[in-house]
């Protein structure tokens, strides 16, 4: 009942009993010796015979000794003694070997567990590093105010943070089915190139599947994946992001997708905010230009006049209008009939206006000199103000022209360049229509 292995079978037990009798007969006939007994005992021990079973088998041989001769009895006792001794030694060796094997297996399991824990720790550390790099990249991108710099830093930083082979940003050219490269880290693509056929199919699939699509491909050594994500804010389509990873473990697949998806969402928000900022700045520039043109037109209007009357602690300012009526801005009171004298406002020999004042001849010499100096300073200040306003107006216009020129220099495709330049000029200068004609 304590046997192990194949000796637990009753049929195998009968075969062992037969082999035992054959070995006893050989030993009694001096055809076998102690070495043969040791070999037979070791074989049975390897097959799983227990000491108890072998003792019972030796005890079953006692009836054979009742009528046997003394020499046979001694020979049989010698067989029993040697067999039990060799079996016990073999069983002890097997048991020791089992223990050593079990201990070695336990040590291997502990080493494997330690290696697994170490790999998990390294993987977690790598995940934390990737996450920290993504957070640092997002912080860096949030401080960028130029669209081209934002997109370029985004693709370069994403490749470095997630160990990606190359990343490309596309924009929809007239329709979401036609994609052109905005910026990329791929050596086989340049700005303005159309998206490759497989990439276009991937992005078309992403448009129909919640804005994301993933495909797998094979490299020389590993398997890679391509992730295509549509960049949207609400219903506004900004562009698309395509990331190629040549060596990605299956265990990190879901985590990688989460990081790419999160980065794409943040990039969409930053890109959209930059669009809003640019539009706000553009509207501000347009208002500055319109306001500057208005002020410039006022400076150049010959009828632009102001009349001021000082009495006591009040200063009343009256603007002359074309129909001869006057609007008093602070206090309405009947005009006092006084004799006025005109004094020119000029810089050197250049006369650009005049000021009408009551006669100052009745003033003291010191006060009259002060008024004349004040008139000269007033002329100088008004001339400087007009010069600054005119310069600011032209400066705003030149700045918008420089923005159009700078944006145009980043476009390499001729047809796209023409479309973008025309649209930029129309929108920047608030024109209704802009035409561009080429000489054949």
Which terms would index this structure?
440 residues; alpha+beta; Beta-Lactamase; 4 domains; five-stranded antiparallel β-sheet; 9 helices; 18% strand; rod-shaped; GAF-like_dom_sf; GAF domain-containing protein
The helix tally amounts to 9
Stretches where pLDDT is under 50 for at least 5 consecutive residues are 321-338
CATH topology tier name of the largest domain: Beta-Lactamase
How many domain units? Answer: 4
Description of the molecule:
The protein has 440 residues and is of the alpha+beta class. It folds into 4 domains: 5-109, no CATH class; 145-279, 2-Layer Sandwich (Beta-Lactamase); 303-333, no CATH class; 343-440, no CATH class. Helices cover 57% and strands 18% of the residues. The chain is built from 9 helices and 10 strands. The chain has helices at 10-28, 34-47, 51-59, 70-141, 147-162, 197-208, 253-299, 365-409, 414-428, and strands at residues 166-173, 175-184, 212-218, 223-233, 236-245, 306-311, 314-320, 326-328, 340-347, 350-358. It has a 5-stranded antiparallel β-sheet, sandwiched between helices. It is rod-shaped and about 175 Å long.
What are the SSEs and their pairings?
Layout: H1 10-28, H2 34-47, H3 51-59, H4 70-141, H5 147-162, E1 166-173, E2 175-184, H6 197-208, E3 212-218, E4 223-233, E5 236-245, H7 253-299, E6 306-311, E7 314-320, E8 326-328, E9 340-347, E10 350-358, H8 365-409, H9 414-428
Antiparallel strand pairs: 1-2, 1-5, 3-4, 4-5, 6-7, 7-8, 9-10
Helix pairs in contact: 2-4, 3-4, 4-5, 4-7, 5-7, 7-8, 8-9
């Amino acid at each position: 009942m304590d046997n192990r292995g194949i000796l637990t079978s009753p049929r195998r037990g009968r075969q062992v009993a037969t082999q035992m009798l054959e070995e006893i007969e050989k030993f009694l006939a001096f055809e076998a010796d102690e070495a043969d007994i040791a070999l037979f005992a070791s074989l049975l021990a390897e097959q799983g015979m227990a000491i108890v079973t072998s003792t019972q088998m030796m005890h079953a041989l006692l009836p054979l000794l009742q009528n046997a001769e003394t020499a046979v009895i001694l020979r049989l006792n010698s067989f029993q003694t040697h067999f039990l001794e060799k079996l016990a030694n073999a069983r002890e060796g097997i048991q020791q070997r089992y223990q050593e094997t079990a201990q070695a297996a336990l040590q291997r399991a502990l080493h494997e567990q330690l290696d697994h824990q170490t790999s998990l720790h390294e993987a977690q550390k790598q995940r934390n590093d990737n996450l920290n790099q993504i957070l640092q990249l997002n912080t860096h991108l949030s401080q960028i105010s130029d669209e081209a710099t934002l997109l370029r830093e985004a693709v370069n930083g994403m490749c470095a943070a997630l160990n990606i082979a190359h990343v490309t940003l596309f924009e929809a050219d007239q329709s979401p089915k036609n994609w052109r490269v905005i910026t990329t880290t791929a050596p086989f693509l340049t700005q303005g190139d159309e998206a490759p056929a497989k990439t276009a199919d991937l992005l078309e699939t992403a448009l129909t599947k919640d804005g994301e699509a993933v495909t797998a491909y094979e490299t020389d050594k590993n398997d890679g994946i391509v992730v295509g994500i549509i960049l949207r804010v609400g219903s506004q389509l900004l562009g698309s992001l395509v990331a190629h990873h040549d060596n990605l473990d299956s265990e990190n697949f879901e985590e990688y997708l989460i990081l790419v998806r999160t980065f794409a969402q943040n990039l969409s928000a930053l890109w959209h905010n930059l669009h809003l900022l640019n539009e706000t700045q553009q509207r501000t520039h347009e208002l500055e230009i319109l306001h500057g043109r208005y002020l410039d037109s006022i400076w150049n209007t010959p009828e632009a006049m102001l009349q001021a009357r000082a009495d006591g602690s009040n200063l009343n300012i009256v603007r002359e209008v074309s129909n001869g009526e006057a609007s008093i801005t602070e206090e309405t009171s009947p005009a006092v009939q006084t004799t006025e004298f005109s004094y020119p406002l000029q810089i050197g020999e250049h006369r650009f206006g005049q000021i009408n004042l009551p006669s100052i001849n009745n003033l003291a010499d010191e006060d009259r000199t002060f008024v004349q100096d004040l008139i000269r300073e007033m002329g100088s200040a008004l001339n400087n103000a007009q010069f600054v306003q005119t310069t600011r107006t032209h400066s705003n216009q030149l700045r918008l022209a420089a923005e159009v020129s700078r944006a145009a220099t980043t476009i390499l495709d001729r047809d796209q360049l023409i479309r973008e330049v025309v649209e930029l000029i129309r929108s920047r200068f608030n024109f209704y229509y802009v035409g561009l004609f080429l000489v054949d």
